[in-house]
Design a protein that fits this description.
Four copies of one chain form a homotetramer.
Chain A: H1 10-19, H2 40-47, E1 55-57, E2 78-83, H3 85-89, E3 102-104, E4 106-112, E5 118-120, E6 125-127, E7 140-141, E8 144-145, E9 157-164, H4 165-168, E10 179-180, H5 182-192, E11 201-205, H6 208-212, E12 228-229, H7 234-240, E13 244-247, H8 265-274, E14 277-280, H9 285-294, E15 298-302, E16 313-315, E17 319-321
Parallel strand pairs in A: 9-11, 10-12, 11-13, 13-14
Antiparallel strand pairs in A: 1-17, 2-4, 5-14, 5-16, 7-8, 9-15, 15-17
């Protein structure tokens, strides 16, 4: 867009932080945030969007080729076998004398819960000592989150909408540092023939993952500069009453961040003020190709986190069902 | 059921292993097995089962209170925080001088992939040196599964059916050692007013999890005696052309196992011969209560594994959508 | 001992906490605590104690059979292979075509640093917000210990002394709840013909490990009642100017603890006030048998922690060299 | 050295593999290999080398700054806190109401056992299906090593000798690809005034760690080209009857390897044929500086592995005591 944007200032931040707040909206004890927008009618409607009968995975493979390079101490997952087919072949397994020839393989995984395709839980982000709905940061200790844990999202089923920004702009991908403004979101809805409704899971594609995933160390994808949402999208997100938002970037918002000396300021509004479910490092390319082919940018969405009590994030294999 | 059952013998095993085989059915290179039963029409139909607009999680919480007690080396998952709210409060985090008061929490998880609610991948079980479709056990080494990995199941969306066996029998739960026979499955379908169709995900509840999960060390739930499927169900499963089967027990089949000196013989038929997707340690109690309340035992099912390349099993948060 | 002991009161605690303090003794920045007692002459003398030329390991095997049962979230270590001989045999390894027939095995370990035979670092224990020498507890965050880390103990070489309390008393082991008083330590020195000197590593055997290690879940060894040091030993320890102390119990001090509603009060004096190096879960039985056989209860001791920067504890394989 | 070296050929390998063999030397069941050279007199003599009373650590810090970059799946260790000082300050710990103000910190470590300063166990390397002394590779499965595990080395106490090759040659460090020949070892002994004796732990410094440890990703230190021992050193090592050998490189031998299409051929002779204890990634710089200062290149050495049953390698904090 070539239009002038409102200047991004600390005053704007404070204004949006206040105007977008959902504190108390669903009760003082609420820990589900914008998931409350998903009422039964939303789920009923979502199911009607299943037309051709296909399901598309939105998960980046969870392995050593992931984007983590040590920022925030995060490393890519480590998958280890604890029983193998070769042990079976060497007749060294416990059941090697089974008269029916039984053998097995088994495995473990060590992962950072936010190292790949993931949901942030509301206990992931604090501002001035509190998280969403005013719960104190002291609820999240070395033993886990007593408030704001991912277990508050046992199910995430809704209508999904894909806003494929680079496709709308006739480009392969946005550039690091390039912000997405509310006008871009509106333009995408219009050109892609889709509207955003209450309870939606809105998937915003920048092309950043596709552009960088094969570069050495992902070319700075993780914690580096990236395309993403401008702080000024906060009001748009809030007004649409969406349930969740996910992108194919490391951190959802544009980087370098728009306010000097700050880190991920939009997160403060999305997670702390709104209680919005935010997804990152999503693989939206397969879905984007499919939507471009059939021209349909809405679908049923199913993507619950793993039920890990006290966790502040979770991997998932999100499904777009068309 | 009080009817006489066919005697469970090694001859029967060999007969069923042969008659239930899907090797080559979907090509020599197939690694998806019975997921091939899920054609687009199956997914389209599944979506029509969403009526009241509610989603129910079928995952047992994935934490230190799980059923693992060391069998097969498996331990319950270890969840660890790598950034905390208390660090934020103590102003010790990297962004402690953020002008907007930014803070965060982050975490990791170490888990056995089959330690809680999970899918078996087809590379999990071997017989005489091979897995489903004849792939050699040497494909599964200490570096992971080159064949039969869980990445072959990127999406699992279908119709789900719950067969609540104890409810049909007017009991709280089946007993350890108590087998479920094909007649029991048919009886459940009839009494619950549901039929099993091609491509279905069939959930078989025994009540075993509910009965033992609060006992010390789960009362032998893991790798001990348990209710479950008789070997004689193999033909029923095969003939129904179902896509997947899951239970609320540790190992799906009745234990002690029905053939002397064998370990989990039905697994050999289900995974190696059929290529069936098998789920274990599923929390079916919430769903069972809901189905009992509305009398509807069919629903849309969405339950993909995590996309962990080369893994032979995966945790998941399965969703029943009604 | 049947003598009357001084009553263990909160007043006594406060008195000892003050009288045993080493804060500032080796400078305001000191993080080595009582290791400062090990001067070159101590090491020179220690080497002269090597007579018969034998070395004895004091480490409990670090594996799944260890004492941890979940207290403080600690679990026994998980050892996993990441390359195996069976993979080599199946010709599936990277170098399977090596003309010289090369193959290899490799492995990983996940462990709680204080789960087995270990040293406590000084950053392990706090009192009222501070650790040894007054460093603030905020130095120990989710990213590790900036003060009081185990890296401050790069070497631990000194004279070692074994005080085998049950042997002195003609018993197999002390009982849970049975306290060791200063008089018992003096009695042991006298009967075993050994004196305790500046810089010593004093090993105090209770027989508790031997008595319980083969019981199911170690019979409550970990975090349960146990024999151990009375709070009243603090002054004895301080006056002897020893460098370190280790026992064959879970927590060094007698349990139940001697002051109501407190947890491990002697730790506060030993670690926070004195800056004493404390070892727990040591396997002293082999050494005890050897000392009983030759009547020599002093030896050269070498037992550095692993150099894990920022860790508050470390496993080790301590060596008694006679 | 500028002398002509014997040509390194496959014939030489086979000749050395045979001539250096210790199979059967200490019995058919022996799993200690060259540690058998450490007899009591060796330990007695070693203790006499303690003169100035100082101990020097030879361990590289075991943390995320280590040399691992993914070769063989190895990653640097992950240290995680499970209890923190900040939790204590926030009064969120279990014992937050302790009348004496008790608080604590605790931590865990996930590490590749050969990821930093380490000993190879004899089960680490195979040749044509067997390890040292002819034990079959099938002894090392996904559940660990039944033969050749590191638990066979409960103590490692002996005389240590440092051969500081670059210092002898008046250089800072050897170059990647630069081989050390027997003549170089002899030259070092002569110029440094030290002889190598039966039972010794011989530390061979190349300067490679110091030269590369601060480069991005250690400049290819791990699994890349490096200075190291020529295959032709095998006979020298064998004839000296040393107990162990350790270097400051990733893999002890010169890389690229000297025989075409082979990987680490000297390992086959050292570990499989000889049963030699081999250490890698040792930090020898502090010791080298000390030896250069006092001109004494022999010392007491104490460096047992951790007692991890069934492990094929182990980290350690080796101690040179002078």
């Amino acid at each position: 867009m070539t239009t002038e944007h409102r200047e991004i200032t600390f005053e704007l931040f404070h204004e949006l932080y206040k105007s977008c707040s959902n504190w108390g909206r669903w009760g003082e004890d609420d820990q589900r945030g914008t998931l409350n927008h998903i009422t039964p009618d939303v789920i009923q409607n979502a199911a009607t969007l299943v037309r051709s009968g296909k399901a598309i995975s939105l998960q980046l493979p969870l392995d050593g080729n992931g984007p983590q390079t040590g920022a925030f101490g995060r490393v890519n997952p480590v998958h280890q076998m604890v029983a193998t087919g070769t042990d079976h072949l060497a007749h060294t397994q416990t059941y090697s004398s089974d008269p029916l020839g039984w053998g097995f393989a088994d495995d473990s995984l060590f992962l950072f819960l936010q190292g790949g395709t993931q949901w942030d839980a509301l206990g992931h982000i604090f501002r001035d000592g509190v998280m969403y709905n005013g719960f104190g940061a002291e609820e999240v200790t070395a033993t886990g989150a007593k408030k704001g844990g991912v277990e508050n999202f046992p199910t995430v089923v809704s209508r999904g909408v894909l806003l494929d920004i680079p496709r709308v702009k006739g480009r392969d991908h946005l550039e690091p540092g390039e912000a997405i403004y509310p006008e871009d979101l509106d333009e995408a809805c219009e050109k892609l023939g889709v509207s955003v409704k209450r309870g939606d899971v809105v998937l915003i594609r920048t092309g950043d993952m596709k552009a960088r995933k094969d570069l050495p160390e992902w070319g700075g994808y993780s914690a580096g500069d990236s395309p993403g949402l401008s702080l000024s999208c906060a009001q748009w997100i809030h007004d649409k009453n969406i349930a969740a938002l996910a992108t194919d970037t490391w951190g959802a918002e544009v980087r370098p961040n728009e306010l000097p000396d700050t880190f991920q300021p939009l997160h403060l509004i999305m997670l702390v003020s709104m209680g919005l479910l935010v997804g990152e490092i999503w693989q939206l390319d397969d879905l984007a190709d499919d939507c471009a082919a059939d021209g349909i940018y809405e679908f049923m969405f199913v993507g619950p986190p793993l039920h890990v009590p006290g966790a502040v994030g979770s991997p998932l294999n999100p499904q777009a069902i068309k």
